[in-house]
Design a protein that fits this description.
Blueprint lengths: L2 H44 L22 H10 L4 E2 H12 L6 H20 L3 E7 L2 E6 L6
Antiparallel strand pairs: 1-3, 2-3
Helix pairs in contact: 3-4
Length: 146
């Protein structure tokens, strides 16, 4: 009977060690899955896409435009009348000589335009004239007479 507490203590110690080991293996498994994900993403970057397979490019437009260039181009386009965000994006892409068929570029430029024109809207330089589909239509704000 005196051996029973020693056996229970030994078993509890062994159970604690096994739980600790399982926890370590679980963390190692999560790290291995993360590493595999990163390796697969890197492979996709260097593989040539197959015919018809879309590869979503991430575009950072921060260094492609000079300061206030997007706003100036939008104002130039809005001189002709109300324009939607998509129309403005197409105008800027055409003006810069970029690929007009690249939908990712169009989306990136459109997001930059929305941000720029919202800031100008707060300053009273442009206004929203409604929506065309799900794109905002912008107009130049009427300047107050001095």
């Amino acid at each position: 009977m005196s051996d029973v507490p020693q056996v229970i203590h030994t078993l509890r110690t062994k159970a604690t060690r096994l739980e600790s080991h399982i926890g370590k293996l679980t963390r190692d498994l999560e790290q291995a899955r993360s590493d595999l994900s990163h390796v697969n993403a890197t492979i996709r970057l260097f593989e040539v896409p197959q015919e018809g397979e879309a590869f979503p490019a991430l575009m950072n437009l921060d260094r492609l435009f000079k300061r206030r260039e997007v706003g100036d181009l939008c104002h130039e386009a809005l001189q002709a009348g109300p324009q939607s965000t998509r129309d403005l994006a197409a105008y800027i892409i055409r003006k810069r000589g970029w690929d007009e068929t690249d939908r990712h570029l169009k989306t990136s430029v459109a997001l930059r335009i929305v941000h720029t024109l919202r800031m100008q809207e707060r300053r009273g330089k442009v206004a929203r004239a409604g929506k065309r589909g799900n794109a905002i239509v912008w107009v130049l704000a009427a300047m107050p007479a001095p």
